[in-house]
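Encode chain A's predicted structure.
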Amino acid sequence: MTATPQAYLSSAEIRNRFLAHFEARGHTVVPSASLLLDDPNLLFVNAGMVPFKPYFLGQETPPYQRATSVQKCVRTLDIEEVGKTTRHGTFFQMNGNFSFGDYFKEGAVEFAWELITGAQESGGFGFDPERIWVTVLPEDAEARDAWKRIAGLPDERIQPRGLKDNYWNMGVPGPGGPCSEIYIDRGPQFGPDGGPEADEDRFLEIWNLVFMQEELSAVRAKDDFDIAGPLPSKNIDTGMGLERVAYLLQGKNNMYEIDTVFPVIERAQELTGKRYGAGTAEAAIDDVRFRVVADHVRSSLMLIGDGVTPGNEGRGYVLRRLLRRAVRNMRLLGYQDPSLPELLPISRDKMGESYPELVSGWDRIAQVAFAEEEAFRKTLAAGTQIFDLAAGEVKQAKASTIPGEKAFALHDTYGFPIDLTLEMAAEAGLSVDETGFRQLMAEQRERAKADARSKKGQHADTGVYRGILDANGPTEWLAYETLETESRALAVLREGAAVGALGAGEVGEVVLDRTPFYAESGGQAADAGVIEFDGGVLEVLDVQRPVRGLVVHQVRVLEGELGGAGTTLHAKVDPEWRTGARQAHSGTHIVHAALREVLGPTALQSGSYNRPGYLRLDFGWLNALSPEQVKDVELVANNALRADLPVSWDYMTLSQAKDWGALALFGETYDDSKVRVVEIGGPWSRELCGGTHVEHSSQVGTVVVTGESSVGSGNRRIEALTGVEGFAYLARERDVVHQLSTLLKTKPDDMVARVAEMVERLRQSEKEMEKIRLAQLLSGGAALAEGAKDVAGVRLVAQRVDGATGGDVRTLATDVRARLVGDAPAVVVLIGAADGKAAVVAALNDAAQARGLKAGDLVRAAAPLLGGKGGGKADLAQGGGTDVTRIDDALAAVTAAVAQG
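Encoded structure for chain A:
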């Protein structure tokens, strides 16, 4: 029995066949969502059903009854385990078909069976029906019967498995149901017979059919939950691992050897001179490294492609770890040069067949990735120096083990991999307290898990909002049409629970049946304003959408007492606030377009925030902008304002918007059935956006760039003011110029030259004063040398020098040492006191060193008494501290150290 099918199918072909199969059966093909969906429970999309969660949860009405997709997914729970097994990777693709109240178990089984067993020449996958096993929940007779009738599977190849294996839920209250998993028998060379229950390496799961049919009221564990009752409609959610199917249909043993992954390993072999799969014990270690490189390069490519940039927290930290682990493993394989420029294009070419945006966005992707590798190479150099200091301290203490906290600091603070620390420690004849390091890592992971659990709890907290949505339908949202509406309170909440009233001064939440308030989204701050009712006024503090379709207002009662649900209210947005918000949001689009005009098309927005009069825009860029570039961006933006460009918006499908050239911003969630495209000046600026905007660019008023800075490797931030706030900023600058020109008695146009002249004169004066001060300081050198005392045959100068800084003391000490001529041992130790700090310098001549005295030892005798530390060479050393009250004690300690010799 061989596991290799007759015909090879590429990953792209598998993907296309899956989508075509279900499209031909009435399913709407839905493009993969971004990996960065706005979900409080998820760092990244980790399953094919995630983009459809609002439909399964009943938060939104699905625009289709049947859908199919190939969803990009990333799972990051065990990054350090990648490559050690051959089935799991960080990035993967999940083929799925979905039914929302349409077909159920029989349909799901029939569609799946047709595809996996259908002849390859007819568009199927061509798996041998005799190799197919399935599992079902023991009590799910309907699924078992479907497999027997539709697929003709015998009872022995329909294995019952318990709730842990064959029941699906989200881990929180919501939909759930039994599932049926499809397995392929790879053959006896992969393990014992007996089906999935016996061995899941031989019997490889490729597809999970989930039958959502129950509403869960509580979930304590995967196999411990309470069922509230049946769902209003039964749904289908399936997930087929594309990579698993690929290695079966390509005759490979694991996902790292398929067509979209192995080419990276092939190039890595060429670069390193090592061979993958050599079969020796040493090669097995290298095989893991090759797999880590291949997985992490592809995963990093996909994350950067969706807008993630390296950082120190959240998604950015995951990407940074992936990139640095790829680079580090290439170094462990023996390749010391930059590796990402060699490997990332290989992955781009293979994944670009299914995701063409990786090719069109390559310049930006490469810029981000290559900059991170260069930064890591510098980190390695800096970390090596820090390691050397730590190793030196261990050896000086006559120990042999680097403490776990030192290794953890290298790893956590400086990004220095633990395997590199272990390797370098061994080379230095030292060991590392791995137990202590692992304990600190475990504590860090537990903190991360606790944080994840707290975020997961947010999903449960939305239950009250889902209940309001289910009972009343979505909020009638009128922010685009009006600033005032008559409304009715659907619910009044305090601390997440419904209340009958809110009294004066209390803060709570109000859900209205209709609202003109803009809820914070797309980088735009929520509207401000008031909600009036008979006998009272509410101040609107914030407006959010905790679940899709529902707008919730956080309010403070300014006057009166607000009743509960059913109260009639009048909602009024502050018109000045809205005007400023529109100016800032349109200004953000204009600055974005100006950036791309000045810097090029790769300067794409990666995040933004705007409120009335202020905007900030983050964009992918490697280097700081020059003053000329900042000036050019501001000029292009204001020229667009002067041109009075028309601002318009329209609704279309996501695919139509992309064909039209509209920019979809990274990390935003878009529904393919309808998106809003905002256009400023025709094709000059076209972006998907749900924010509020002006009607003509001139209404922005002005764009005043106030700052440009770094917000992480390969990411910059530009800040600007708009409207009245921009004019006020310029007015303040004008007033400053006027005051300075009056003080300097010069014209504004001549002020720069006048200030430059004054600065140069001041600099020259300071240089002259420094010469005089230094001459005065050194003039005391002769007197100090003459005052040298004989201590155990050593000419010793140990003195306090008030008003002298570290540099002054160093200069004076070397001058005094030079004055102590002769063959006798000479030691000079001076302690300066200035600005509440002490600086100690020891300078020794050759004779003193020959006697066994060392400048570093003398400084270390004095510095601790001063509340500090120090060290240096045998002839000259320096230190300091913050306790100037103990200078005399420190000098006495130095004298004692010299006397003891």
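The chain is about 40% helix and 25% strand.
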